[in-house]
Design a protein that fits this description.
It is a single chain. This protein is mainly alpha-helical and 122 residues long. The chain has helices spanning 2-16, 18-28, 43-72, 76-92, 97-113.
């Protein structure tokens, strides 16, 4: 049951960060989702926002893959979720905090669901 909860938290964290990536891409002028006008900004800033928006989507996909791996019971799930949590700070900085807390809670819940390691019998 904890795996299902962890997967739900990870998916919710990823979904809650979708507007961040869309706003970055909107500012860059790639998509017009929120009608953000970044035309008065320096070209380098808009390029940076576009690259950051694309990378934020990559991080979201990694979090969703981690959620799927969590449901499947894979040992790689924690690695994907931890990577997505940390990488999100690189792509969306302070705006990533709510998503990071949610995905981090999924990692913590997933850690509780893992059976304790057994030492080899002597």
């Amino acid at each position: 049951m904890e795996r299902v909860g962890a997967a739900a938290l990870a998916a919710f964290g990823a979904a809650s960060a979708v507007p961040l990536a869309l706003a970055q891409l909107d500012f860059a002028g790639i998509f017009n989702v929120f009608n953000i006008n970044g035309e008065g900004s320096a070209q380098a800033l808009r390029v940076f926002a576009g690259v950051s928006g694309i990378l934020t989507f990559v991080v979201l996909v990694a979090a969703l893959v981690g959620a799927g791996l969590t449901l499947a019971g894979s040992k790689l799930a924690r690695a994907f979720l931890i990577t997505a949590t940390v990488a999100g700070f690189v792509t969306a900085t302070i705006f990533w905090i709510p998503a990071a807390v949610t995905i981090g809670a999924a990692v913590a819940l997933l850690g509780r669901a893992a059976p304790p390691a057994r030492s080899p019998a002597l």
